[in-house]
Write a structure and sequence with these properties.
Layout lengths: L2 H45 L6 E2 L3 E4 L6 E7 L8 E6 L3 E8 L21 E8 L10 E5 L2 E7 L12
Parallel strand pairs: 1-6
Antiparallel strand pairs: 2-3, 3-8, 4-5, 5-6, 7-8
């Protein structure tokens, strides 16, 4: 083994170590930044009054090509149909909104401690795109067991469907 080969191996080994340390440094920095962002988001949520929180309910949209309607299912556990508003904003934006209120007695809320609080309370809003020209009279909504089913026509009345060419 010559001196140049030995020196080359040491330099190569040194470069590998540098690359490994840089990769470790990037991974640790990324984890630290994610943790800071998470803590910042939690602080923002805690500072915000509970009644002003706006959240988006989860949704599942079913677009069956063989059906003339598109259906969206929204999770709204504990909600009643009277607590939910379905409106058509502008020409093609369907808005589902309402407010979920905590069932805890309001006179005790200051003294009661919640070690775990995962249920979202407050105002909610979910918007969905619908075809341009859709009228509110063609949109149907039904609430059952905390699930809101909303459907609208694939093609609004008065439009012609294009046949595949």
């Amino acid at each position: 083994m010559t001196a140049t080969t030995s020196t080359h191996r040491k330099l190569s080994h040194s470069r590998n170590n540098d690359e490994q340390f840089q990769a470790l440094d990037r991974a640790l920095a990324r984890r630290y930044v994610f943790r800071l962002l998470h803590e910042q988001r939690l602080r923002r949520i805690q500072e915000q009054p509970q009644g002003d929180v706006i959240f988006r309910p989860r949704v599942e949209i079913c677009d069956d090509p063989s059906s003339s309607r598109i259906t969206a299912t929204l999770e709204l556990p504990g909600m009643k149909a009277d607590d939910v508003r379905v409106t058509l904003e502008r020409d093609n934006l369907l808005a589902i909104s309402g407010e979920r209120v905590s069932k805890a007695p309001s006179d005790q809320s200051a003294s009661v401690n919640f070690p775990v609080r995962e249920i979202k309370y407050g105002k909610f809003l979910r918007t969905l795109d619908v075809p341009s020209g859709t009228m509110m009279s063609t949109i149907s909504a039904a609430m059952s067991d905390g699930m809101l089913l909303v459907s609208w026509p694939r093609f609004p009345p008065g439009t012609t469907t294009r046949s595949p060419q």
